Each structure stands twice: as C-alpha cells, then as structure tokens.
Amino acid sequence: MATAAEARVWARSALRGIGDSLYTPFCGADGDDIDWDAYRTLVRYCVGDLGHPMLWCTSGIAEFWSLTLDERKQLLEVAIEEGRAANPDVVIQACTAAMSAKDCLDLTLHAQQAGADIAYIQTPMMETHGGEGVLRFFKYIGSHTDIALGMFNSPSSGYVLTPAESARIYDEVPAVCATKEGAFRPAASRLLHELAPGLVLWECDKTVYRAGWLRDGIVCPAQLGTAGYLFETPQRRLLSGYWDLIVNDKLVEAMDYGRESGLDQFDMDLGSWFICYPGRPDYFTHWGGAFKYAASLMGLPIGDYPHSRPPQAKLPPEAKVQIENAYRRLGLVGA
C-alpha cells in the first residue's frame, strides 16, 4: 500500500496491466444477500486463472450504490484475501465513493486499514456544487487518510469534471495520483495531461491507445477498471494479446489484431447494453445485470439472483439475445 506521500511515485510504476472491475453476485429473495462463494471464485479466476495484475473493487459494475457499507467493506476484504493468495503482488484498487463525505471517509479508512493499494473516489452523484464542491470533498478525505487516492470521472455521476477542475484537485490534494477518465472525451484527457503531466491517466476511449498516446506519455499502461475477464478466457487470451501489443508500441499489429481476432466486431455486436438503459438513452450507466449475464455465458458464477438490485431495471430478453449472439460470434461461447 502506498501512503499519501508515496502515492505519485508509486503510481508511476505500480499501475500496469489489466484491472478487473468485479461484479457483485447476489442471491436469496430479492437479491438481498451476496453469494460469497461465487465472489471468491470470480476473484480467483481474474487473478489466478487469467493472471490479471489488478483488481477494481466495489465500483460501478459492483453496483456500489445498492450495497450497504458493511457489504462494501466485506467485498473488499474478500478480494484482498483471495487476490493476494493467488498473487501477493496484485494491485487492489478500492472505489470508496459514497453519497456523504463521512461515509466515503469511513470506506477509505477501511480500505487503508484492510490493505488496499489505492482508493478511487467517483465524482459525488448528488448535490455536487461543481468542481469546487468536488475539490472540498477530496480535501476532506485526503486530510483524514494516508493512502493513495484516485479520481473516477464518470458521466454516471451526472457531473463530469473539466480538465481544469481535475488538475486543481491534483494540485491541491497530494495523495491524488491517478484518474480513470470514463466520459469518452479524448480531447479533455489530452488537456488534463497538459495541465497535470504527473497525473497517471487512463482513458476509456480505446482509439487513443492506437493513436500512440501511451508512447507519448499521455495515458498510462494500465486499464484501471474494466471488465477484462469478459473479453477473454485462459484458453483464448484475446484482450491480453491485444493489450500486450499496445504496451509494446506495436500499434499497427494491434490494429490488425483487433480486426482479425474479432474484438473490434465484438464491441459493435454487443451494442450498448453494458452502459445504456434504453428507457433513459442519454444517461451513462453501469448495468450490473448485463455484465452478470455476460459472465454467466462465460461460465462464471453470478449467484441465484441474476438481476441488479434497485434502482436498476432487470435486463430484458432482447439484451440477452444480442449479448449471447455477440459471444457466439466471437467464439467465447459455444462451438
């Protein structure tokens, strides 16, 4: 674990490779319980079977807004226990976003004490007074903790920080060392790098990596939080093969690989079910039920309650058909 003072030096070398954002397998009536055996299996699969070097815990795909604080703490503890048993060097990233600064502090202190390496704070999802309010939020957490901190700039918050606002947080909160830019706006990420060149930045837009942004030092060689385990198996390491080409600056080969392996087509075949609810098409979401349905196609356990908890909707049949067809076309499901 990096202390606040060590965070920026640590992040430059430690944040590398594929980081898996874990779903939460629910069970019981209305999904009110968590299937802990299924969750342990998922962690072991990502770290042990796939060999991915980072985990991203209790964030959007995990449906953190539907979990109690105690559940979030236990999910992190289990991920640390199982992940470090499979690989003692696995980097544990904990999302400690919460509706109140006090709850966020509680979760961040717990992450620090439990042995997480870094805590990411998503831009608060309610009553955010712009960048100034988010800055106050980060300052409050930073002044009461001693762990590396990251930003998670997602449109699912309802407010996306500008590059200047993010750079100010980086300038004024020394523990902040990394950011997951999830708004798919590369021009803003490039400007953020110019304003805060020491900030470790992951851009969710894949095209910037093919454009040489890693070579130019704009983005980092890590996928800070993605569902990488849904894009490959131990027998067909599609995503790892693609990512290795990107990291080794073999960009033409990576573009050829994306086309020839079917990964590029897979993105189109999946559609937007992971990130968009059709009843609210202008809103970016992390639809937990869609991620878990895909995981079930891959043979991963998702608990006996396959849906998201409220306030998310249940995944409709047409989504399941499209997702399954995409996996069959890629060859990760069926013969």
UniProtKB/TrEMBL annotation:
CDD domains, A to Z: DHDPS-like
InterPro entries: Aldolase_TIM, DapA-like
Pfam families for this protein: DHDPS
UniProt entry keywords in alphabetical sequence: Lyase
Coiled coil, from the record: none
GO molecular function ontology, one term from the record: 4-hydroxy-tetrahydrodipicolinate synthase activity
Homology family: Belongs to the DapA family.
Stated name of the protein: Dihydrodipicolinate synthase family protein
Source organism of the structure: Mycobacterium branderi
Organism taxonomic ancestry: Bacteria, Bacillati, Actinomycetota, Actinomycetes, Mycobacteriales
